[in-house]
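Model: You mentioned two targets. I'll fold them one after the other.
Researcher: Yes, keep them separate.
Model: Target one:
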Amino acid sequence: MSELLCMSGVDKSFRRGSQDLRVLKDASLEVGVGEVVCVLGTRGQGKTTLLRIAAGMESADSGEVRFRGEDLTGLSDRKLSRLLGGQIAWAGRSGPGGMRMRLLDYVAMPLLAGHSRARKRGREDVYARARAALERVGAQGCGEQRWEGISDWERALVELAQGIVGEPELLLVDDLTDALGIRETDELTALIRSLSKELGLGVLMSVSDPQATLFSDRIMTLGGGTLTAGPSQEPGNVIEFPDLGAGRREAERGRRGS
């Protein structure tokens, strides 16, 4: 499998009052073409920081981050900006923020900003690709709506559509399943895996619930700053992590039974 992302010996600390909080300690991982890798951990363990460093959005205190063999730490801000939104894409849960815009415009933003390989194409082609991305994830009815008018499930699909619209090689998915129930989590992660195989897309996902790891190729756990490799798995296999997500699953079962 061809390697896309390689992080080696990454350390990261933040200053909290008079102390340094070390959120990543000698973290290392790899993501290959067409591979889905999940980083599992509870909130506040540094999953988003790990993904931001992988994207070049944030610098590590030490260690190495390579994309396609190129060291991201040596790139200028301009080159990093071009890389993010082109070959590397981000799908989170923030939406368009305070901007009131059609979601079709939101999905098209990476293309309109000129970061993708399609930046020289006309606006008609840009919006055709945005519509195609929404249709591919099953959110074709959301294009003319606003963020505040759609459900958590639809928001996850719209974020995913924006993530794939620029035809990236690496997609970083930050806790996109966090607000979803069990069935929706399964459907979204199955969709992400399908996109990964169909597009040859490497995916690095941060997740808080073990349910979201079921369609991944590899699982890593993050806790206390330490990133630990978990077992490889076949899609759909259940791997139990009893200390993570159990309460949410029980609550979900209770709602269904009531």
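Model: Target two:
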Amino acid sequence: MVLKLLRAMGYGDSVPNAGKRTGKPGDSGVDGVIREDALGLSLLFIQAKRYTVGSVGRPEIQAFVGALQGTDKGVFFSTSSFTKEAVEYAAKVSGKKIILIDGRRLAELMYEHGVGVSEAKKSSFIIKTVDFGFFDEEAGGIGDE
């Protein structure tokens, strides 16, 4: 899902099949990579955590930073929130640009870029509703690009 969102936001636009899912749930590694150029000289690493309880802490961010081999930037998504220590650590990592996207911001970005929502045009305005089929893993809605 986050690969689809980043592609909708314009990351890897100039590269066919730029987004690649690399991890599996619970593997603690990098979950995806987006090649931002045709030669793969600029890579964006992605980590996504689906938490129903609790927040992402500094140890998870440190592990992600440690996995950033071959790139200097990454985006860490969480359906929940980040602890103060995680936010502070991500902000001060030397030589790396780490963006943290919490559940609230994730929902805002999905809405803004039309990922996981359906649009219905009514006269002069657009109504967006949640597209529940998009989130059905068994039906293949969230799978690879």
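Researcher: Noted. Anything on target two?
Model: DSSP finds four helices and nine strands in the chain.
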